[in-house]
Amino acid sequence: MRGMPRRIFKGEMNMFRLRMMVTMLLAVLFSAGVSANEPLAGASGMATLDQQTQSLKQAVLELNRELFVLEEELLYPANTQVSVFVSMDVGEYFALDSIQLTLDGKDISNYLYTPREVKALHRGGVHQIYVGNLKVGEHELVAVFTGEGPHQRDYRRGATLNFDKAIGAKYVELRISDRAQQLQPEFVVKEWE
Amino acid sequence: MRPRCHSIDIPDRLIRVTAAILLLSLQSLAVADEQSGTVVRDPHYGEVLFHFYQQDHFTALTHLDTAQAQQRVSNHAFEAELLKGGLMLSWGQHVEAGRIFENLLAASDDVGVRNRAWFYLGKVRYQRGYLTEAEEALASISASLPSELEAERFDLLARLYMDQGRFAEAVELLESFDGADDWSAFASYNTGVALVRMGELDLGARLLERVGTMRAAGEEQLALRDRANVALGFAYLQAQLDGDARPVLQRVRLNGPFSAKALLGAGWADSAQQNYKAALASWLELSNRDLLDSAVQESLLAVPYAFAQLGAEPQAADHYAQALDIYSVELARLDSAIDDADSGRLIASLLAEDSSSADGWYWQLAQLPDDERSRYLFFTIADHRFHEALKSYRDLVMLDGHLEAWSEKLAAYRDMLATREYAYSERLPVLQNRVQQFDLEAMQTQYAEIEAATVRARQSGDATIVAPADEQDAWQRLIALESNPAFESEQAAEQRHKQRVLKGLLQWNMEREFRLRLWHQEQRNAEMRVQLAQAEQQFASIDAATGSLDGTVDDFAGRIDRLQAVLDGNRNRLAGAMQQYERYLTDVALTELDGQKQRLLTYRAQARFALASIFDRMAAMNEREQ
Question: Structure pTM?
Answer without folding.
Answer: 0.70
